[in-house]
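Sorry, explain these tokens?

***
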Amino acid sequence: MVALLRQPPGERLTDLETWTGPDGVLQVAGSLYDTGRFTGTPFAGLVLKPLAASAEQALGVLWTFGSLLLVAALGIVAARALPAPVSRRTMFLAAPVAITLLMLSLPVRNTLHLGQTSILPVLLVLLGWFVARGERTSGVLIGIAAALQPAVLLFAALLWLTGRRRAAAGAGAAFAGCTALAWAVMPHDSWTYWLHHAAGAGLGDRPDSLSNQSLHGALLRLGLEGPAEIVVFLAVAAAVCFLGLRRAVRYAQDGQLLLAVAVTGCVVVAVSPTAWQHQLLWVLLAAVGRVGKRASDRLVWPAVVVLVLTLPGKMLLPNIGAVIPVRDNVLLIAALGAACVAPFLPRSSPYWQQPVPTDYAKPVAARWRRVPLLPFWRRVLTRPNLLLELLLIRVVYSAYAKVRLLATAGRPTAEEHGRQIHSVEQWLHIDIEHWANHAVVEINWLREFFDYYYSTFHFIVPLAILGVLYVRRPADYRWVRSSIGFATLLALVGFWLYPLAPPRLMPGLGFIDTVHGVQDFAKPDYGTLTSMTNQYAAMPSLHFGWSLWCGVVIVMLAPKPWMKALGLLHPLFTVCAIVATGNHWILDAVGGAVVVGLGFGLTYLLSGPRALRPKNPEPEPSSEQPEQPEQSEPSSEQPASSASPAPSEQSGPSGPGRAAEKVG
């Protein structure tokens, strides 16, 4: 709240200021919809009009504080509505986790910034379903919510289909009464909203803008217009309503009432003429559904929902033409998935409480006795979920790129650090950058080779290694992925604390930028990447760090000696490329090696050593064979040979020999 209210008046609670300011919509005697800035229902305008008499500063404080209280109440109600049985730990953590996720979500953040009322309808619906006593009160609360956001009236259909017909009738009556009251007080505005704009369609932003995450907005973005678009929208919306409400009724009858409400809310998002980003809070509630029979897959659905609802689409998916339609409609896709597709488990499923356990590797003794291990996680033998892994890599890299871009202290500081590095290298007699740079410039084919190598292999080789290990060596994939992640995070600390000008951006030293050409040091130009990269994020060098990581992983895991030797060529060529092209100092490469070493070390400390594969693995019993009962030790009266099976029995197709083949 403090951070929001410290912003300039024109940047905080912009919608609220538009409504209640001196020239605001609620102050003007004319229509609410003349300016196109008010998108609520006439009943919402009727409720908000008394706020126009409040002092602007006091109203901003009360509005923000009230919104925070609504979010807290929403989180508490949602936490208490979790389907039973609920463990004591879940009961203790559910409310704070729910409130935290709500605060981080895009709908709540936009609501707090814009001053919208979109939290209130969600809270009224949850209060009507889970808190209100008596069907009449429940219906009235849901009807008032529908008067503020008309598509919420779909919950009256859910009430009717689940047997709460008195509550459904009460919801319809409350909606009709509130709407009639607004029509009597503001007939012109009501005519404009309900008939001219068809329940608010076309008010506010353009209906085909990315902010409108409804089926109507998606069809407009795909190029459909006019009567054809309306027919397609009505047909698809009817199908979504049928499937979504059918699933919601099934979950309500199964005892998962919160999931039923969330699914219905996702249907509301999809079929509304306009579903602005601050109105999509229903999708986050769908994270309560349980998807997947395996414990390792159980967190995939809630993780995807939380990522979609907390991060912008540009962080989730790259700027590639084939995925841009998905990226632009990712919130709608999540809502449709929750409403019509996601295979939520019923409570009668044997996997509801006890999913298939994760297959963990046996702990391995430390190789260095003096190193105190802190095994925070156990090594998993199976490969992670591909969708979640791709999202994780994309989100982490997007966050890395954003922080890297912000980690700059300006040109003078970076050049001062460059002079410091150059002085240290001169003292150590390793300042070979100028000689290498000018030597390569004289040989055209060598310069072109290093320019291409610097620009291309930095991403290709690490991604190729991760892809091969994901498919062929899933247990090792998790380990090497963690190590490069730690190294990258540590490099961000270096970028932030020690911005450094590379040799090519040091005036007066005579370096030649072989990749980008001659530069104006005051305003360097690198084409489309100029505004997307921080040229002073040079210490440590992740070009060399990632290449060294590739070399170490290949040497450790490659089965053939020639593969190991080939893997060592990549860091060798990379260090030559970064020095010869003038993009890094020698000490930058040293810094890259340090963060990679620390990345491997942190992985070792936090998860323990990885199990080395012996050349001749001992045969192990197959996990598919049932366990045999333990045999008692032979008595002294029995011959020793009778205590163990005959050699011919040990080599049979169902014995350990067969298990050894499976392990191999």
Observations:
- The chain is about 60% helix and 0% strand.
- The mean pLDDT is 83.
- The two ends are 60 Å apart (CA to CA).
- Residues 444-472 form the longest helix (29 residues).
